[in-house]
Design goal:
There is one protein chain. By secondary structure, this protein is an alpha/beta fold. It has a single domain, classed as Response regulator (Rossmann fold, 3-Layer(aba) Sandwich), CATH 3.40.50.2300. The protein has 5 helices and 5 strands. The longest helix has 13 residues.
């Protein structure tokens, strides 16, 4: 019997980034679930538990740190890979302190992203 495909929720406000990540994950045998806003992701998480979450840090409205805080209060555990164009170590430290499993800077390397997702799921 085959194992169900790995479902990866993606939260990024940039449509081109969401589409590119969706294509990459599809080509890697994963199932992307795309979200354009924190509210859409939170609504999804009330019904489903993905295997991993790719989380953009800088977004209008509730940002990635806000989402990390919300995720910490949920009764589910979802590994979270933060993806951001932000430089510096302070955002990374804040993300790890808030529960992120990994932190990657854009532009993303496809192989590194897939390996990071796989490692985050196995933790």
């Amino acid at each position: 019997m085959s194992r169900p495909a790995t479902r990866i929720a993606i939260l990024d406000d940039d449509p081109s980034v969401r589409a590119a990540l969706g294509r990459l994950l599809n080509s890697s045998g994963m199932v992307p679930v795309l979200h354009a806003s924190s509210a859409a992701l939170i609504n999804y998480l009330e019904r489903e538990t993905p295997d991993c979450l790719l989380l953009d840090l800088l977004m209008p409205g509730a940002d990635g740190i806000d989402v990390l805080g919300h995720m910490a209060r949920l009764p589910i555990r979802v590994p979270i890979v933060v993806i951001t164009a932000t430089d510096g170590s302070m955002p990374a430290e804040a993300c790890f302190a808030a529960g992120a499993s990994a932190y990657l800077r854009k532009p993303l390397n496809a192989d590194e992203l897939i390996q990071t997702i796989e490692m985050a799921i196995l933790q």
